[in-house]
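job 3f2a | input accepted
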Amino acid sequence: MKSDNTQGLSAGRTFSPAMSARDWTMLLTLAVLWGGSFFFAKVAVAEIPPLTVVLCRVVLAAATLHAILRLRAIAFPPPARWPAYLGMAIINNVIPFSLLFYGQTRIGAGLASILNATTPIFAVIIAHLFTADERISSNKAAGIVLGVAGIAVLVGIDALHDIGADVVAQLACLGAALSYGFSAVFGRRFRTDPPVASAAAQVSASSLVMLPIVAFVDAPWTLPVPSQAAIWSVLMLGVVSTAFAYILFFAILQSAGATNISLVTLLVPVTAILLGALVLGERLGASDLVGMGLIALGLSAIDGRLWRGLGLRFRQSAG
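job 3f2a | predicted structure (319 res):
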């Protein structure tokens, strides 16, 4: 049954078809925070094993968010909610992080980015099947296709030449995108909890899951002491790109729904490229501009307001 009054995959209030200016601002900010994480991760994983970086990231985020809860006198979600947050941690952190890490060790970053950009497609389909108020529409379908095409142009069409070269790794990246799609819909059930409490509960559960995995695989206590640059990168990953990012994630999920929060995967590569141009002095090419234009066109189609306005003006001028 496609109802938000159930305790199934989706539970939540009705969402408006278009995001507000506040929602778009939060989504763009979230994209910047997650786009910046590529810089920090690149420095960190050069000296620290990736799974250990993930563990440090979620532990630091959990500590930061618990401190915010205390400062703001916000209660941690009650024990009855913990199993649901454990499920959210698994499908929104543990599974996709692990699958993406495996996939990215076997295929190029460009192809991995394109495969990860399929997250909104999965989110739209899952939301259509399990919710009553986030159904597939023609503008959503067209917008997502345009957005994914923009990602392909942005990272380079040549990345698509590797399709079929390592099917298992590519399926792992698609599995991560599918997991993110499920988490976007599953996360609607946390609408009654403050976003900072939801974020704290999720990364706390992720920390508990990752701890024995990292202890077994990496034995981090045997690793050499990393440089200050790597330590600062991990701190930025945990505090900025995880703690504050997930506060925004749950806030957008509450106000705009599963489909709209998944759009951040289309914006993250854009912000990463723009940050590279602004911070590292990298030059933007024609393909970058075309790709970002396609993504902007896709997002405007999903939002719908500009397209409806143009349609109204066309009908008025034709009449």
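job 3f2a | Residues 228-256 form the longest helix (29 residues).
job 3f2a | closed
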